[in-house]
Amino acid sequence: MIDAAALLRARNARADAPALACVRVFGCQQNEADGEKLRGQLLDFGYGLTDDTAMADVVVFNTCAVRGHAEQRVLGNIGALSHTRKQGQIVVVCGCMAQQKGVQDVLRKSYPLVSLVFGPALLPRFAELLWRVVHQGGRHFHLEDATAPVSEGVPVLRSPPPRAWITVMQGCDNFCSYCVVPYVRGRERSRAPENILAEASALIADGYTELFLLGQNVNSYRPDDGTTFAGLLRALNELDGDFSIRFMTSHPKDAGSALFQAMAECRHVAPMLHLPVQSGSDRILLAMNRGYTRERYLSLVAEAREAIPGLNLTSDIIVGFPGESEEDFDETLSLVRAVRFDSLFTFLYSKREGTSAARLEDHTPERIKKERFQRLLELQKEVEHG
Ligand code: 5AD
Ligand code: SF4
């Protein structure tokens, strides 16, 4: 097999001027973490890094597909390149948006400046994908299923301490009816605990004091040896040093006393829990395929607060899911009033092609959805300041 990283290094070493690369990241923390791996690999291939797309020989967009708005922003950014583009510039689109056939068709037809497209699963094979473009030219579109285990040892350029991302698992098997993530990031795969512990120790030795564990659903962390997420927290807690552990995201259907007890007993684990509820209405929760009821959620929150003194509790809510009635929305408001989240991330429902909710009829006018969204924001403001 060719060593594509070495070939890129040799080619960049021969260039008259140092070749430069620019990585733009959109979306969630997992994408930020992947962005650090893209930058780390580009450095390893002999590129210098720049923030200026106009100066870059390679521009990489690490994209997000969770809502339509994020996709539009990325397309706008790619389009804007055509005015400032450096001669021979290679434009790469990767991440979740790139793993959708419909998006690949749009890029192929309407964005001729894009020459390499690949989804999150191929990130560890960046060297070979980029080498093909540099060496052969042409346009390369990859659409492979994410089945490979989470890769180890990919070069990473981290931001300076205190915070470091650690991916513990990838993918999602929940198929919430509105969500594109299971389609673009594939099935759940967990890293072996010994690899996570080794990474955490090295980070602590390097002065990182805020270790942030990442996974679409950390509570389904389940490597081959059967370690649970609570077990992983306990093992990390045994490491020496001055550091705290945070994590996200927890799914309410998988969170429970094992997690709360571990959080309460581990001195290094911060008392912070992000527990997305999405809606306060049982009817909508069922249509979302969330796997819990309003009552179950409320009792989980009570249990978590009882177990973990001073718990900081945050959540996500989607407004305007297809068929959400005024009564359903009132249930969401009353849940927010009852729980009093420390902060709330609120989203207007965005229809994602290929998800099962995309086939639902949706008669609520956009104006009403926006109005509800405002009411929710105001209520949360009241909760936070009242
Ligand atoms: N529309 C709106 N919000 C969404 N989210 C996920 N998919 C969608 C969608 N189609 C929100 C959920 C999730 C957060 C990361 O993004 O609230 O928890
Ligand atoms: Fe999407 Fe649900 Fe998986 Fe979260 S748990 S990534 S909302 S399918």
Record keyword descriptors for this entry.
about 375 residues, alpha/beta, six-stranded parallel β-sheet, three-stranded parallel β-sheet, 13 helices, binds 5'-deoxyadenosine, binds iron/sulfur cluster
Characterise the protein shown here.
With 386 residues, this protein is an alpha/beta fold. The chain is 40% helix and 16% strand. The chain contains 13 helices and 14 strands. The protein has helices at 4-14, 29-44, 68-84, 101-110, 126-136, 181-185, 193-205, 229-237, 257-265, 282-287, 294-307, 326-339, 366-385, and strands at 20-25, 48-49, 58-63, 90-95, 114-118, 140-141, 163-167, 169-170, 189-190, 210-214, 244-248, 272-274, 312-319, 343-348. Helix 1 (4-14) packs across helix 5 (126-136) and helix 8 (229-237) packs parallel to helix 9 (257-265). The longest helix has 20 residues, at 366-385. The protein binds 5'-deoxyadenosine and iron/sulfur cluster. 5'-deoxyadenosine (5AD) binds at residues 66-67, 178-179, 276, 278, 316, 318, 347, 349-350, 352.
What spatial order of strands do you see in the largest sheet? Answer: 2-1-3-4-5-6
**Fraction of residues in H or I helices:** 40-55%
Low-pLDDT runs of 5+ residues are none
Order of helices and strands: HEHEEHEHEHEEEHEHEHEHEHHEHEH
Q: Whole-number radius of gyration?
A: 22 Å
Total helix count? 13
Major sheet: 6 strands, parallel
Number of strands: 14
Structural class by secondary-structure content? alpha/beta
First-last Cα distance: 63 Å
Shape: globular
Bound molecules: 5'-deoxyadenosine, iron/sulfur cluster
Name the beta content range.
15-25%
| Average pLDDT for all residues | 96
